[in-house]
Amino acid sequence: MISPGCFGRKIKLLTVFAALVIVLGCRGISNPGTPTPPGQFPQFSHVVLVVEENHGYSEVIGNSSMPYLNSLATKYGLATQYFANVHPSIGNYFMLTTGQIVTTDDGFTGTVDADNIVRQLLAAGKTWRSYAESLPSAGFMGDSYPYVRRHNPFAYLTDVVNSSAQTQNLVPLSQFHSDLNANHLPSFSFVLPNLLNDAHDGSLEAADQWLQNNIAPLISSSSFQQDGLLIILFDEAGFDDLTNGGGHVAAVIVSPKAKAGHQSTTFYQHQSTLRLILQGLGITKFPGAASVAPEMGEFF
């Protein structure tokens, strides 16, 4: 038989325990999927996005033909459940910049006036540049093989093409090295290998060597080591992989603030990368699908 005093003490203990559970739950401790509260997301002075082409996750991760990229994936962060949005390429590039697919026509020649990353960067007082390998000159709006406009979504945005000042932010890759050496990278950099070096027309070996030659100096720079963020991903898998629209692809998150060796199993697509770029620069308005996309704070 339980004494009245003992029973009363048990009721009090249960009440305290229940209150503790409620408090912890409100703080998000019991729910690891709770979004990072505003102001607590890691902030970066420079965010860099590099996009490779047309190879699936299993072709890239663990492939001895890409030792440099795999070394980054092992040391920093790897999204193991990252999927492109669509085939062919152009829709994925628009998702990365507007939060919308916009078009699936690689021959698209129009302009895009939807809300986009440039609009939000400028509204927040941030700077940007698109550094494209084999771009003939700043502000060039055509194709010049092995450079193609369809892989440079900034060349379609009305915020860029209708502004002589913003058009000058479409620059050749050589400017990336100059800006890096001068410690003058913008808030956001889009770095685009040409078709021979992004694994589209060339080999994975060539793409990996390009990354080592062009991206290793960025990672080792003092400014990046302080508070930089680099995202390297593939725009889409091969056309035989239609999973979640554009197939299973590799996405690597590199930063001195990144959890070492973190492998995420969360489902992500390109709209989450768009959100990450802006959120990492302190911007709280996200274009299109980025506004409801899962955030990628788990990597930090």
Summarize the structure.
With 300 residues, the chain is of the alpha/beta class. Helices cover 34% and strands 15% of the residues.
List the helices and strands and how they pair.
Blueprint: H1 4-26, E1 46-52, H2 57-60, H3 67-75, E2 77-83, H4 89-98, H5 117-123, E3 128-132, H6 158-161, H7 164-167, E4 170-172, H8 174-181, E5 188-192, H9 204-220, H10 222-227, E6 228-234, E7 248-254, E8 262-264, H11 270-280
Parallel strand pairs: 1-5, 1-6, 2-8, 3-4, 3-5
Antiparallel strand pairs: 2-7, 6-7
Report the total helices. 11
Strands, total number: 8
The largest sheet, given as strand count, sense and whether it forms a barrel, is: 8 strands, mixed
Uncertain segments: 1-36
Strand order of the largest sheet: 4-3-5-1-6-7-2-8
- What CATH calls the topology of the largest domain is Alkaline Phosphatase, subunit A
Protein model, in words:
It is a single chain. The N and C termini lie far apart (54 Å). The N terminus is likely disordered. By secondary structure, the chain is α/β, with parallel strands linked by helices. It is globular. The protein has an 8-stranded mixed β-sheet with strand order 4-3-5-1-6-7-2-8, with helices on both faces. Helix content is 34%, strand content 15%. Helix 4 packs parallel to helix 11.
